[in-house]
Amino acid sequence: MSLTDGYVPPFQSDEMSLSDVLSHAVEHNPSVAIANVDVEISEARIMAALGAFDLSLTANLGGEVTEFPQRGSQLAVSLGQRTIGGGVGFERKIETGGTVGVTVDTFRTRADQPANILDPTAGQTRLTAYSVVPTLRVQHSLLRGMGLKVNRAPIERAKVAKTVSQAQAQVQAQTVARDIIVAYWDVLRSHQDLINKRRNVDLAQQQQRITDGLVAAGRRSKMDAKVARQGVVKREAQVLEAEQTLLRASLRLRTLMGDDVGRADHLGVIPTTDPVVEVRSVIIKDEIDQALERNPEVRRVELLQGVAEIDEQVAKNNKRPQLDFEGRFTPQGRSIDRLPDPTTGAPGQDASWGGAFGNIFNEDVGADGALADWTLTGTVTLTWDVRNRKAKGAHEEALLAVRRSELTIDDMRRQVTSRVVEAASVLRTAGKMIDVAELSYELAQDNLVAEQARFKVGRATNYDVLLRLDEVDNAATEALDARIAYLKALADLQTLNGELLPAYGLEG
Q1: If we measure between CA atoms, which residue out of 446, 467, 445, 464 comes closest to residue 455?
Q2: Contact 208, 225 (CB under 8 A)
Q3: 231 near 507, Cβ under 8 Å?
Q4: C-alpha pair distances (Å), 128 with each of 104, 134, 350
């Protein structure tokens, strides 16, 4: 069935196939675009969750100046110092429930001190000291907060949320595709109905011309001419109603396609895809099994149960007492000016960064041995909520959420099963109605031809002929409606069993 052969719609329209309309909607439909953005947002949240275990860098730089001038005969150990230092560190969370970090701090200090603390008049001397202080720090949970599942829970939630978003995007895409398919066939039906109504006007006008000729020949009364004219006017009014129906159907389709009808030059679509029906055999059990396996709505609620199970694992872990370990290991390298000793003749020695780094591992530069200066600390901290009602309540709530998810899945499966049975039944009924409707259309055409012949020989009235015209119009509409009803029912069934998007090349 083609609408393009000599057909002119009442407003500017574009010729489009069903696949063209669907492809256009993929690019422009706002609901599909929003669902796709939601998937991208979920991907960004996965990245953010993974970022909890990223390596972080810290750096610092600082200085301090202190002056303690000697007053009178005061005994003094330090007269002032100038310190400048900086450091760099790295820290990372551990997936099992802790944190590990390494820092290296360096300082250079120039201290002013009396040459003789017992003689304030002996003057002062300046010593330079270099310090290198690396620190290894480890903190780890031993009960609450320990374990890969607990610490990676935000990542797993984000990954499940992405799959849920993808399932929801598929649900949205299927819904939009089904609505567009239904709207497309509605537009085609409206176009064809308009064609039928226009054809009926032509046939009614032809009948009026025949009647006018018979009236002029004295074979019919003037009342017959009025009846014929009334039939023409009535059908012209039906054409106007059909044009309004077509406009509403076209605007709905354009809106689903994502077009802004307020700015569009062409409001309509002329369907170029014929509603060809190939009746398929339906085995309800197979359709149900496929729907329960591939239906995106079922898949979405099943994935949401995974989120509830993750939350239950975290809530269960939070019932444990808080037992944390923290350990620090801090070796230190120092190099300090050595003043000359006039009593022994020992020469002095200047401090240096090399000496400080060397003394991390040796007491003296160049000497063999273990670490020189070092500190090792360890702490275990216990925090125990005696009644622990908050954690217990949260865990109970999480268990109930899991149970609720299970009930939701069962309910969704029952709903999908019921809808599949209904859609399959409608599909089978629609397939049978096609043959009935097409046979009725053929009979209506035959009756019209016979009635027109009887009218010409005076054995029928204008009313009889116009009645047959209406029967042909109604039968043609019913024949088209039967095929469109089948295609709509097929789209509903394909939506339920996950076939719709692949069937139209829209999967992925």
Answers
A1: 464
A2: yes
A3: no
A4: 20, 20, 8
Q: What is the pTM of this model?
A: 0.77
Length of the chain in terms of residues written: 508
Strands 13-16 and 268-271 turn out to be parallel
Q: According to the model, what pLDDT value does residue 391 have?
A: 93
Query: Burial code of 134-167, b = ≥16 C-beta within 10 A, e = fewer?
Result: bbebbbbbbbbbbbeebbbbbbbbbbbbbbbbbb
CA–CA gap between residue 198 and residue 248 (Å, rounded): 19
Ordered by start, the domain boundaries in the chain are 13-48+153-314+392-503, 61-141+326-386
Given a cut of 80, whether residue 369 has pLDDT beyond it is no
Locate 243 and state its tokens: 């044009």
Handedness of CA 435, 438, 440, 442 (dihedral sign): negative
pLDDT band with cut points at 50, 70 and 90 for residue 367: very low
In three-state secondary structure terms, 112 is strand
> Residue 221 has what pLDDT?
82
Placement of tokens 């096609």 in the chain: 434
Q: List Cα–Cα distances, 497 to 26, 183, 424, 494, in angstroms.
A: 21, 21, 11, 5
pLDDT tens by residue, 421-438 = 999 999 999 988 988 988
What is the amino acid identity at position 189? R
Q: Alpha-carbon Rg of the chain, whole angstroms?
A: 44
Q: Tally Cβ neighbours within 10 Å of residue 118.
A: 7
Residue 86's CB: how many other CB atoms inside 10 A? 14
Token digits of residue 57: 């860098």
Q: Any residues with CB less than 8 A from the CB of 164 and at least 6 apart, and which?
A: 42, 300, 303, 304, 307
Contact 339, 348 (CB under 8 A): yes
Residue 4 makes CB contacts below 8 A (sequence gap 6+) with: 15, 270, 272
Task: Output the six-digit token pair for 122.
Answer: 């002996």
Residue type, 269: V
- State which H helix or E strand residue 93 sits in: strand 80-94
How far is 427 from 384, CA to CA, in rounded Å? 64
Report the C-alpha gap between 28 and 33 in whole angstroms. Answer: 7
Topology of the domain comprising 13-48+153-314+392-503: Outer membrane efflux proteins (OEP) (1.20.1600)
Cβ atoms of 92 and 136 within 8 Å: the answer is no
CB 189 within 8 A of CB 183: no
